[in-house]
Design goal:
With 186 residues, this protein is mainly α. It has one domain. The chain contains five helices and three strands. A hairpin with a 2-residue loop joins strand 2 and strand 3.
Length: 186
C-alpha cells in the first residue's frame, strides 16, 4: 500500500508541476502579448495592426510575389486587419489571430511545462517558434492562392484545412519534444 501511495503522490506531483508551469507560462506570455497589442494596435479613429501582424502580411505578400502572383497588402480602413489582394482581387483579411503568436505562446508554454534544462529548452522553443512562424506565412500565402482560385471552398479551407496544418505541426513539435528531448523520454 505504501508503494501505491508513493507512486500516487509522485504522479500527482508531476501533474501539478506540469499544470503550474504550463498555465503560469501561458498566463505570463499571454499578458505580455496583450500589453504589446494594446500598445501597438489602434482601434480609435484610425485603425492600425500591431507590427507583427503587419510583418506577417508583408512577408506573405513578398512570398506571393516571389512565386509569380501580383500581391498587395494595405491596412483595412474599417477594422484592425490588413487586406491581402492577389492579382487585384481581395482574398483575405490578416488579423491578429493570423500572425501565429497565439500558437507560438501555446507551443512555448507546453515546452516550458516539460522543460529539460534551460539551454535545450530555449533552443527548441526558438527553433520551433521559427518553424511555426515561417510555416504560418506559407499557410497564409497558400490559403490566399487557394481562395483566389477556388473561392467556393473558402470556408472549409480557412476553417478546417489550414488550422489543421498549423495545429498539426505544433502537435508534432510537442510530440518530438516529449519523445526526444524532455525529461519524460527516460
Amino acid at each position: 500500500m505504501e508503494n501505491y501511495n508513493s507512486f500516487f503522490v509522485q504522479s500527482n506531483k508531476t501533474v501539478v508541476v506540469f499544470l503550474i508551469k504550463f498555465f503560469g507560462s501561458y498566463a505570463l506570455l499571454f499578458l505580455i502579448y496583450n500589453v504589446y497589442l494594446n500598445e501597438t494596435q489602434s482601434k480609435i479613429d484610425v485603425f492600425a495592426c500591431a507590427p507583427i501582424t503587419n510583418t506577417v502580411a508583408h512577408q506573405t505578400k513578398e512570398l506571393l510575389n516571389f512565386v509569380g502572383y501580383n500581391a498587395f497588402v494595405e491596412q483595412h480602413t474599417n477594422e484592425v486587419s490588413v487586406k491581402l489582394l492577389v492579382n487585384n482581387k481581395f482574398v483575405a483579411r490578416i488579423i491578429e489571430g493570423c500572425n501565429s503568436i497565439s500558437v507560438i505562446i501555446l507551443f512555448t508554454s507546453f515546452i516550458i511545462a516539460f522543460s529539460n534544462g534551460f539551454k535545450r529548452t530555449l533552443i527548441f522553443i526558438i527553433c520551433g517558434s521559427l518553424l511555426i512562424y515561417i510555416s504560418n506565412v506559407f499557410r497564409i500565402a497558400t490559403i490566399a492562392v487557394a481562395i483566389y482560385k477556388y473561392p467556393e471552398y473558402e470556408n472549409i479551407l480557412h476553417s478546417i484545412v489550414f488550422p489543421l496544418l498549423i495545429y498539426g505541426m505544433t502537435f508534432m513539435l510537442w510530440f518530438l519534444w516529449i519523445r526526444k528531448f524532455s525529461k519524460l523520454q527516460k
